[in-house]
Amino acid sequence: MTPLSSREQFSAGALALLFHVVLFMALVFSVSWRQTPNLPAQAELWSSLPAPRPVPPVKVVPKPAPKPEPAPEPPKADIALQPKKKPEPPKPEPKPEPKPELVKAKPEPKPEPKKVEPDKKQLEREAQRKALEKTLAEQADSELAQEAAQLNRMRQQQQASAARDKLIDDYRAKIIQKVRGYLRLPPNLTGNPEAVFRVDLLPNGEVIGTPVLVKSSGNALYDREVERAIIKASPLPLPPDREAAAVFRSGLTLKFRPKEG
To answer: Is the residue at 84 inside a domain?
Structure first.
């Protein structure tokens, strides 16, 4: 604080003295200085007390809360003497602290799994099992191949047999047709009798000896005509297949009816 000058000190003292004088005068005029005279006392006598009057209920009115007294204003001299405060300079705003950069943690390397050495006995059992499976598979394949080959041979034999049977039937029909070319039916032949002969042939188809009558037709003249026709038709046609031709050479059976084909 700066020291006050002599003039300012005198002004402040005069204002203080004037304030005290005004306060003293207000206290003097506010007090009553009159004295009340002494009056005689009077009393009344009652033979009986009167009935008490009913006392009305007293309404209790809540007292209002006392208002706060305003603070006394300071003297003008004091206000004038107080130095003016200089406005404080604005505080600089704090700079935001830089955020720490997050450093990514490196992943820990995974531990390598331990190599488990295989059991030798287990490896041997596995090798034996695989070898057995391979052997069984090869055996099954071989059996299947043999069965397939056997079925194929049977099929081929059946086809060859069917073809041979057809060939024999065809040449038997040719032989009968050739014999019929030399057959002369006897007169007065009734019905359709059947004559059966067995014939032996040479490899070139020639008839060996006399045909053998296996079954007579019941007509001797017809039986003799069939025998004569067989001998006249020699040599008989034979198939080129040796097995089929062998069937014809070793006892060829021929059946004749007069009304066939």
So the answer is: no
Please give the Cα distance from 150 to 49 (Å, whole number).
Answer: 159
List phi, psi (to 5°) of 135.
Answer: -65, -45
In the sheet that 252-256 helps form, which strands lie side by side, from edge to edge? 212-215, 195-199, 252-256
| Residues 6+ positions from 248 with CB-CB distance below 8 Å | 168, 171, 172, 175, 201, 205, 236, 238, 239
Give the pLDDT confidence score for residue 77 in this predicted structure.
Answer: 46
- Upstream peptide bond of 68 is cis (omega within 30 degrees of 0): no
Within a domain: residue 95? no
Q: What are 201's strand-pairing partners?
A: 207
Whole-angstrom Cα Rg for the chain: 82
Whole-number Å distance between alpha carbons of 196 and 194: 7
The string of pLDDT tens digits covering residues 39-55 is 565 666 656 656 666 65
Q: How far apart are the C-alpha atoms of 225 and 181, rounded to whole Å? A: 12
Beta 195-199 vs 252-256: how paired, if at all? antiparallel
pLDDT, tens only, 213-240: 999 888 889 999 999 999 998 888 888 8
The average pLDDT across 155-160 equals 84
CATH code assigned at 155:
3.30.1150.10
19 domain residue, yes or no: no
Is there a contact between 252 and 175 (Cβ–Cβ < 8 Å)? yes
Sequence-ordered alpha helix ranges (H) in 31-105: 76-81
- Our count of domains for the chain comes to 1
- The Cα 125–Cα 138 span in angstroms is 20
- Can you list the positions of beta strands (E) in 56-142? none
- Helix 220-233 / helix 120-180 crossing angle, nearest 10 deg: 110
Taking CA atoms, 74 is separated from 9, 15, 81, 82, 163, in Å, by 17, 12, 11, 11, 152
